[in-house]
Design goal:
Helix content of chain B: over 70%
CATH class of the largest domain in chain C: Alpha Beta
Strand content of chain C: 15-25%
CATH superfamily of the largest domain in chain B: MetI-like
Structural class of chain C: alpha/beta
Order of helices and strands of chain B: HHHHEEHHHHHHHHHHH
Number of strands of chain C: 11
Number of domains of chain B: 2
Radius of gyration of chain C: 20 Å
CATH architecture of the largest domain in chain C: 3-Layer(aba) Sandwich
Number of domains of chain C: 2
CATH class of the largest domain in chain B: Mainly Alpha
Shape of chain B: globular
Order of helices and strands of chain C: HEHEHEHEEEHHHEHEHEEHHHHEH
Oligomer: heterotrimer
Chains: A mainly alpha (264), B mainly alpha (324), C alpha/beta (356)
Number of helices of chain B: 15
Chain lengths: 264, 324, 356
């Protein structure tokens, strides 16, 4: 079955994966240390830092807010991004390159600049709606990922199948739901997951737009690091890793997802 | 079954009509169908693209252009903005060799990150595209994991590995290296961390591209007696170039704008342009100069992306012509 | 009540009870239902403000105070970006930024008539009415307890410290203190004169480079590394970031070389055009009331800017108080107006030395 993957390749891949995982395991080890400050290697074993984090109302509020924010941002990004990707791939539009350039440019402008520029604009408009501001800021950064991944899957749609279905008398909506949708679904899911992750992990935009009532997890993490460098930071980090893993696994289970589309 | 799974994963082919028919018809599908039939209209293309374009024009282009405009204004020494236009910030940027050297370092790190990411990406991408479904999933989830972990946490993880009593020193000592080098607080540490997190951005499109390569070509080459390596060199590599181009240009852009990693892992000895931007905006309150450095960074990334894509598409045309 | 594991609950409970019962309070009906946004620092100070001072204040005034944790520089940036339409009413910033905010027109003078607690403020922490200090910490050198720190900063240039020092990055305010130290070591003059000689002292700064392991941005993290023995000495950091570790038993503490130490003044300012200004002023007054200051100082291990507070001997180990003690220790506050004008150029020179 795996005749095209040689044993040597498997060894190389194994080593690379070990290196990739190593720095992520470190916080796990540090989080169980029974010392009032971070040490490595850990001394003793305790789960009290997890208890402290989970019982902390600030940590919980941040986590729930980040979840809410990431979910809204993902929805908005898909709502805007999917039709846009369809328009870009299915139609020959004059100025297409310029449009594509605009869509991808949030990736190359330093985020700290985007953030401060947005704060200035919102202040000028007199906006006090923090949640809305954060949604807008994050969506700007998430859109490129969504559009890339959805466009990629739309480009790969097999036109022959579509034509065949039409020729056989299928009306357009049947073609859309039964021929095209199954083919682009992985791309849309991938784009959604990606924007969720990007939003959930954003610091430079939130730093400018957030306030005390809307305080995403990455900002919270920074304040904890400033307060003192005790193992609860490692515990938060580990919890974030667990959460991410859970998310990926659930999506895998529910959608039997084509993960590899994530970044393509 | 397992093969079909992977085919879906890597988009090497499309699911057939039989699979498509299994989706039940309901209001969702009818709605989607309505939406889809709209697509035949004349202005539909514009209608589809317009919301996103307007959104980005209002909430991205406009504020960012305001910042670029800011780079053309002055900022007096005591932190007060002054009215009127000036090229002062750009003159300052180009008259000191400090900024030129940091620009060069930014380009160097971004290039090396792209190069190493590409190097590590091939074995991973081939495994995803050609290995069994379990293996493909394992690889995919593992390389995506760093993206899910906050940059600060990741950086501290690396710090613990790379410092003088860290895991790397320990492994090297076991291997008999008597005086292992300390990579922490050098450019190498920055490079390692950048490759680590941006790897999936190359692997994913690459896996997609490799998955799309017709296996019969490879098999034919193998039957004709080609070694695995020459199959890679003559078939896989040239045909995967478009995927590589997408990934590498993204990695280049992202690593050029990195600013947290150079601080924590580079020990501030090797700042990149992003670090300087943060310094100007946060510490020195000199937004105009920060905006000027940002404009320089944006211009550099745009230019290199263009050059790079041109280069790759020309090569690709030549190689694929040769391969046929 | 809280889930703080890092400090004794007793101390916290004590602080909370003192705060909840301010002396002779009349009901503040005028503030009912009003809301203000304030920008505070992170760190243990921010934690205390959020968990103790604000809840008590909200209860007394029937109002809502939303606090966002940030740090001085971002706080100034936020004030600037929202200047046309202020969002925040009170900002916590370091003294270094007060002249900047003043010249840019970001802050207002305090209405001293409405702030009775100003009576106890030491005049030097009043900034001509443009704000008040809230907490004073000492900036100096910190070291691993296994080594004997040098008695003078001049010794740090010796080759025996090669690769063993951590230096604060130009991003942070104490970086300026280091430049003044370098100028003082080179010229042999006291800090007050040396601060005007920094421009000619960058050769001395460059000479220290071989001894520097890295430039750090994050004080607590640098303290943790020194405690782990990755480096021997850190230059320079505010005591509020180091002593919480020392108090917890980590092998790291501070030392005070013969040249003297610096005062790190955490302050509060009133944003120009502040929404609900009256409530903002009441909050600022609350921040410097003696009961609040005592609990706040004991929690964060900083000295209060007001007179007449009694501390235990244990607390006095970590803070320089009262003001006579600050003078005795030679706590130096730089000429920020002069330095702010120079800082951009100095940072560029620091980058030129360490970044290429």
């Amino acid at each position: 079955m795996n005749e095209t993957v040689s044993p040597l390749l498997k060894v190389v891949v194994g080593i690379i994966l070990l290196i990739v995982v190593a720095p992520l395991v470190v916080p796990l080890l540090m989080s169980i240390s029974d010392t009032p400050f971070i040490v490595f290697p850990p001394q003793g074993f305790t789960l009290k830092w997890y208890g402290a984090v989970l019982a902390n109302p600030e940590a919980r509020a941040s986590f729930l807010f980040s979840l809410e924010l990431a979910a809204i941002v993902t929805g908005v990004s898909l709502l805007l991004g999917v039709p846009c990707a369809a328009g870009l791939t299915r139609f020959k539009l004059p100025g297409q390159d310029a449009i594509l350039g605009l869509i991808l440019s949030p990736l190359i402008v330093p985020l700290i600049v985007t953030g401060v520029a947005l704060l200035q604009l919102f202040a000028m408009l007199g906006s006090r709606a923090t949640l809305l501001q954060l949604v807008i800021g994050h969506t700007v950064v998430c859109l490129p990922y969504v559009i890339r991944s959805v466009s990629a899957s739309l480009l790969l749609v097999n036109r022959n199948l579509e034509d065949a279905a039409s020729v056989l008398g299928a009306p357009p909506h049947i073609v859309a739901t039964r021929v095209i949708w199954p083919q682009v679904r992985p791309g849309i899911l991938a784009g959604g997951i990606f924007s969720f992750i990007v939003s959930f992990d954003d610091y430079p935009i939130s730093m400018w737009l957030a306030d005390g009532n809307h305080f995403p997890v990455p900002l919270y993490l920074y304040t904890v690091i400033e307060r003192s460098f005790d193992p609860s930071i490692a515990a938060i980090a580990s919890l974030m890793i667990f959460f991410a893993l859970l998310l990926v696994l659930v999506i895998e289970k529910v959608f039997g997802l084509s993960l590899a589309r994530l970044a393509s | 079954m397992s093969r079909a799974d992977i085919i879906d994963v890597t988009a090497s082919s499309s699911p057939d009509l039989r699979a498509a028919r299994e989706i039940p018809e309901g209001w969702i599908s009818r709605l989607a169908g309505k939406a889809w039939s709209l697509l035949s209209g004349r202005y539909t293309g514009y209608l589809l693209v317009a919301p996103t374009v307007l959104f980005l024009a209002a909430w991205f282009l406009w504020p960012v252009l305001t910042m670029v405009y800011l780079s053309l204004t002055a900022h007096s020494v005591d932190g007060v903005m002054v009215e009127g236009f000036t090229l002062e910030n750009y003159i300052r940027l180009f008259s000191s060799d400090l900024y030129f050297r940091i620009l060069m370092r930014t380009i160097r790190i971004a290039l090396m990150t792209s190069l190493f990411a590409a190097l590590f990406a091939y074995p991973l991408a081939i495994t995803i595209a050609r290995g069994g479904p379990t293996l493909a999933r394992l690889v995919t989830i593992t390389i995506l994991a760093p993206l899910l972990v906050n940059v600060v946490v990741r950086s501290y993880g690396w710090q613990t590995i790379l410092n003088k009593t860290g895991a790397l020193a320990w492994v090297l000592k076991l291997l008999g290296v008597s005086n292992p080098p300390v990579l922490l607080y050098t450019e190498w540490a920055v490079l390692i961390a950048c490759v680590h997190v941006y790897l999936p951005f190359v692997v994913m499109p690459l896996a997609g591209a490799i998955g799309r390569i017709d296996r019969t070509v490879e098999e034919a080459a193998r039957v004709a007696g080609a070694t695995r390596f020459s199959v890679f060199l003559r078939v896989i590599f040239p045909l995967s170039l478009p995927g590589l181009a997408v990934g590498v240009s993204l990695v280049f852009s992202l690593s050029a704008a990195a600013y947290v990693t150079p601080q924590i892992l580079g020990g501030n000895f090797s700042p990149l342009l992003g670090t300087l931007i943060e310094q100007q905006i946060l510490t020195l309150n000199d937004w105009p100069f920060g905006a000027a450095i940002s404009t320089l960074l944006i211009a550099m990334v745009l230019a290199s992306n263009l050059i790079f894509l041109k280069l790759v598409s020309r090569r690709f045309a030549r190689w694929t012509a040769g391969a046929r | 009540m809280t889930t703080l594991s890092r400090r004794t609950f007793g101390k916290l409970a004590l602080g909370a009870t003192t705060l909840a019962a301010p002396m002779g309070f009349t009901r503040n009906g005028w503030a009912q239902g009003k809301e203000i946004q304030i920008g505070i620092w992170g760190g243990s100070q921010g934690e205390f403000v959020k968990k103790n001072i604000i809840p008590a204040f909200e209860k007394d005034f029937g109002c809502k105070v939303t606090a966002e944790e940030g740090f001085t520089l971002a706080n100034v940036g936020k004030m600037r970006a929202t200047k046309a339409n202020p969002k925040f009413s009170v900002m916590f910033i370091d003294d270094v930024a007060i002249p900047i905010c003043k010249t840019e027109g970001l802050i207002d003078q305090l209405p001293s008539a409405d702030m009775p607690a100003l009576a106890n403020l030491y005049p030097r922490f009043g900034f001509d009415g443009w704000g008040t200090a809230l907490a004073i910490s000492v900036a100096s050198m910190f070291h691993n307890t296994s080594i004997t720190p040098p008695g003078s900063y001049a010794d740090l240039w010796k080759p025996e410290y090669a690769g063993k020092l951590k230096l604060v990055s130009p991003k942070n305010t104490p970086s300026v203190f280091f430049l003044i130290v370098a100028a003082a070591v080179k010229s042999g003059k006291p800090f007050a004169e040396a601060q005007y000689l920094v421009d000619d002292s960058f050769d001395k700064v460059a000479a220290l480079k071989p001894n520097i392991m890295n430039l750090f941005d994050n004080g607590p993290q640098a303290a943790a590394e020194v405690a782990q023995g990755q480096a021997e000495i850190g230059l320079l950091e505010l005591s509020k970031y180091i002593y919480p570790y020392t108090a917890k038993g980590a092998p790291v503490t501070m030392s005070f070389p013969s040249e003297g130490s610096f005062a790190g003044n955490n302050c509060q300012v009133l944003v120009k055009g502040a929404p609900n200004k009256d409530l903002a002023v009441a909050f600022m007054n609350r921040m410097i009331e003696p009961a609040v200051q005592k609990a706040f100082s004991e929690y964060a291990l900083t000295a209060p800017p007001v007179s007449g507070i009694e501390f235990s001997a244990e607390t006095l180990k970590y803070i320089a108080y009262p003001v006579e003690e600050m003078d005795k220790r030679g706590l130096f506050t730089p000429d920020w107006e002069y330095i702010n004008a120079k800082r951009s150029g100095w940072t560029e020179k620091m980058n030129g030395i360490f970044a290429v």
